[in-house]
């Protein structure tokens, strides 16, 4: 049986290459998405500055199982407790805060943001002095080699450093040697006492150096017992997370992306492999009948088909392991380059994604062999003499039940999206897969749908296409299963591409318009030097022509609502200028009361949280700090901008940098260009400050949207590319199989032009049917998503998106049918018939 299977593979190379390619690409894509999922779940980062400490103690970066977005600092008293734990040789406290070095009064910013640390933590990297000495006094600093070179300073030179929004002059006491080969931030080292003061008295992490010969795992356990639940103890590659505050918040994004697209990919790959293998077996009906005629039993044929499938699936999976790893790494690189996740996170793709890719591919092949191979093995010998009658039966109860299962689930997800899901980051998790399920359900019923639609199109096709149309219609009626095999993958391509692209276009448009309406400020000042000192906003207000100014801080945290924890976005503002800077329309209380321990929120959210004016709202800020501010104002709800508003002076200290990075300014009516010039002069006097128009905030918000767009489009392009390859595989295989048919048509009087005309009409029929079904399937994603996002049944985005998707599909259809047919008809018709 093995010899027969291998000989069959040898003499049917075209169809088996198509099947092998579908399995190979499918396994690679599943492995790639699996690697992305494993990376998100493990979320580890190699340490840079803390590389010399095998054990690191840092603040707990989660609250109630959810990741915090800002650094959670720890009590300095823990350093002594950790130092007394068994096996600990030394415990070194580490702080990190923005410290921007100036050159000629301008901030040295760019790719290398500089941060200040205590000199004691330099040994954790380790940094070593190349020149000069350590910072013994409060007015001395040590710069790393790269930063010293950029600033043009050496030991004994004076250097200006912006810390806490203020410019201070220090003496360079030393320069560290170049470390090379790592991506650590540019470092400015202060004396330990001064660093602790500049950091606000708390520390970020503790580097633990075990005693000589001490076991790292045992030391880590002893440290955990010492700190309890007051801090987190990291070892191995997770130590790097202590240097990346807020990184765990991107874990959810990566896992959701991998889960959404991974599940869709698994379904698509299983469908693609099954359809390709099923088509290959369908085209071998005559071969199976002849084998039956010479004495083969159905069981022997099933074993032969199973053996062929095993050879193909095992071979394709083995060859796909490394390409799948590289594909997953490419997807992860897109996420890191887009800013979705830090580039310091380590990509992981172990045995699990490899196993999942192998199992999915093998199961898809086994399932196709089970259903398609069983029918092929039962082919009666007489079918060899009646090949024209073969391929007309398609309906079966299992096929109908499976199709209804996919359709019902697709409809269920669409309904859930429109009625159950709220506008939020998880909305796409139900909307996206709806079109995939609907596509597969329609594809399973494609033979019956194709036959019905061909009957509807009969008259217009005959009226406009003559003899070529008549031949095409006859083929479509007698070989509706074959035509449906070509329609199915195109439905998948059009449905997924259209649904995803319009879903993303709607998201972008709604977010952009909502943000545009919410920002009233004419100008925005940005700090690239760690934030603004408290007096800068007062200087902006005093600028001639400025009507109002407000500090602007953004963060994420949680509301401890009565029915459980709720994610929340926070905005920090200045009460004196918020009404002129942001479109917040009070319905109760006054925004002027936003000082100290107070909060304002929308009336709808207040009702949801069960609070009103004068009540206290329990919040958990981005660094994990619990607060209970008093509600002083309620404003009209904006479903697209649901922020909880706090005083900037309250929110900023609980962000990683501790200061507001933006100031919004509204000019007086008729202020003219003089206001911009005055603000530009002010910005030039504050190191590291840039001036931009108010609409730049909307642009930046759109840029944030584009972060996920890049990842989204990359994964969608991968899925659509696989669907496109499946289309080409299917159509080329079908066309090559029909060479004998084309030869007979030529021998009976049809010209080459008429045969190509017939194929063109068939292509048009395939395109029309697939476009209708694909559009219906995409509506399962587009309509409910648009209803929730934009309160409209129609999505945002240009009609050109739809035309491009349909046009690209038609190009694939005609390219994969006309080109192989034209090449095949260069062979004499008699030889083409004899070759069959």
From TrEMBL:
Q: Which residues form the ABC3 transporter permease C-terminal domain?
A: 260-381, 714-828
The protein's name is FtsX-like permease family protein
Write the record's keywords in alphabetical order, separated by commas.
Answer: Cell membrane, Membrane, Transmembrane, Transmembrane helix
Q: Identify its membrane topology class.
A: Multi-pass membrane protein
Record family assignment = Belongs to the ABC-4 integral membrane protein family. LolC/E subfamily.
Q: Which Pfam families match?
A: FtsX, MacB_PCD
MacB-like periplasmic core domain span:
17-225
Keyword field contains RNA-binding: no
Q: Where in the cell is it found?
A: Cell membrane
Q: Which residues cross the membrane?
A: 254-279, 305-325, 345-368, 400-421, 433-459, 480-503, 710-734, 755-779, 799-819
* Organism of origin: Streptomyces salyersiae
């Amino acid at each position: 049986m093995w010899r027969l299977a291998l000989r069959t593979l040898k003499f049917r190379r075209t169809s088996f290459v198509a099947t092998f390619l579908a399995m190979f690409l499918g396994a690679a894509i599943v492995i790639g998405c699996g690697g992305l999922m494993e990376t998100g779940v493990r979320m580890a980062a190699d340490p840079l500055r803390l590389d010399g400490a095998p054990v690191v103690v840092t603040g707990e970066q989660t609250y109630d199982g959810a990741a915090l977005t800002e650094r959670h600092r720890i009590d300095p008293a823990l350093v002594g407790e950790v130092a007394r734990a068994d096996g600990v040789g030394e415990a070194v406290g580490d702080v990190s805060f923005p410290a921007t070095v100036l050159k000629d009064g301008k901030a040295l910013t760019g790719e290398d943001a500089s941060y200040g640390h205590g000199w004691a933590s330099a040994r954790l990297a380790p940094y070593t002095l190349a020149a000069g000495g350590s910072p013994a006094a409060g007015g001395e600093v040590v710069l790393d080699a790269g930063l010293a070179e950029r600033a043009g300073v050496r030991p004994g030179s004076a250097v200006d450093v912006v810390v806490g929004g203020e410019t201070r002059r220090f003496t360079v006491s030393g320069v560290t040697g170049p470390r090379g080969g790592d991506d650590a931030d540019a470092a400015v080292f202060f004396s330990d006492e001064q660093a602790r003061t500049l950091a606000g008295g708390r520390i970020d992490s503790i580097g633990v150096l075990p005693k000589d010969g001490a076991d790292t795992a045992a030391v880590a356990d002893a440290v955990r017992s010492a700190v309890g639940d007051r801090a987190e103890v990291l070892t191995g590659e997770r130590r790097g997370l202590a240097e990346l505050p807020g990184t765990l918040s991107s874990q959810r994004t990566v896992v959701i992306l991998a889960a959404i697209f991974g599940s869709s990919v698994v379904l698509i790959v299983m469908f693609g492999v099954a359809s390709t293998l099923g088509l290959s077996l369908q085209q071998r009906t005559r071969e199976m009948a002849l084998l039956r005629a010479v004495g083969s039993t159905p069981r022997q044929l099933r074993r032969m088909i199973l053996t062929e499938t095993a050879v193909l699936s095992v071979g394709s999976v083995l060859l796909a392991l490394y390409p799948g790893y590289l594909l997953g790494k490419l997807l992860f690189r897109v996420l890191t380059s887009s800013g979705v996740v830090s580039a310091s996170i380590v990509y992981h793709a172990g045995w699990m994604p490899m196993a999942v890719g192998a199992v999915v591919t093998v199961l898809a092949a086994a399932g196709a062999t089970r259903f398609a191979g069983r029918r092929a093995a039962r082919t009666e010998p007489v079918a060899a003499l009646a090949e024209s009658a073969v391929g007309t039966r398609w309906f079966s109860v299992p096929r109908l039940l499976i199709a209804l299962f996919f359709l019902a689930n697709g409809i269920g997800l669409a309904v859930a999206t429109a009625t159950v899901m709220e506008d939020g980051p998880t909305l796409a998790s139900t909307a996206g897969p709806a079109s995939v399920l609907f596509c597969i359900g329609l594809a399973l019923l494609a033979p019956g749908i194709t036959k019905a639609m061909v009957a509807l199109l009969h008259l217009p096709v005959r009226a406009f296409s003559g003899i070529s149309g008549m031949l095409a219609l006859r083929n479509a009626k007698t070989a509706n299963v074959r035509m449906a095999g070509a329609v199915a993958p195109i439905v998948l391509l059009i449905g997924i591409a259209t649904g995803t692209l319009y879903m993303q276009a709607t998201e972008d448009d709604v977010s952009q318009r909502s943000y545009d309406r919410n920002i009233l400020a004419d100008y925005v000042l940005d700090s690239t030097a760690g934030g603004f000192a408290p007096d800068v906003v007062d200087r902006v207000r005093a600028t001639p022509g400025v009507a109002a100014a407000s500090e602007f801080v953004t963060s994420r945290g949680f509301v401890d609502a009565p029915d459980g924890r709720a994610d929340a976005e926070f905005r920090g503002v200045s009460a004196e200028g918020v009404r002129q800077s942001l479109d917040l329309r009070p319905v109760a209380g006054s925004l002027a009361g936003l000082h100290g321990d107070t909060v304002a929120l929308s009336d709808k959210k207040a009702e949801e949280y069960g609070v009103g004016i004068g009540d206290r709202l329990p919040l958990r800020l981005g660094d994990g700090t619990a607060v209970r501010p008093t509600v002083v104002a309620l404003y009209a709800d904006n479903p697209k901008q649901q922020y909880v508003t706090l005083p900037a002076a309250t929110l900023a200290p609980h962000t990683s940098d501790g200061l507001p990075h933006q100031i919004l300014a509204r000019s007086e009516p008729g202020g003219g260009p003089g206001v911009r010039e005055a603000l530009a002069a002010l910005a030039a006097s504050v190191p590291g400050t840039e001036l931009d128009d108010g609409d730049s905030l909307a642009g930046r918000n759109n840029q944030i949207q584009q972060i996920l767009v890049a990842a989204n489009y990359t994964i969608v392009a991968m899925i659509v590319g696989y669907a496109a390859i499946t289309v080409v595989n299917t159509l080329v295989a079908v066309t090559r199989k029909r060479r004998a048919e084309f030869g007979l048509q030529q021998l009976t009087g049809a010209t080459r032009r008429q045969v190509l005309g017939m194929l063109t009409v068939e292509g048009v029929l395939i395109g029309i049917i697939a476009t209708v079904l694909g559009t219906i399937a995409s509506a399962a994603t587009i309509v409910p998503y648009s209803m929730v996002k934009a309160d409209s049944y129609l999505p945002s985005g240009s009609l050109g998106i739809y035309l491009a998707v349909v046009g690209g599909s038609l190009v694939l259809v005609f390219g994969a049918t006309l080109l192989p047919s034209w090449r095949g008809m260069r062979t004499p018709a008699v030889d083409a018939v004899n070759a069959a």
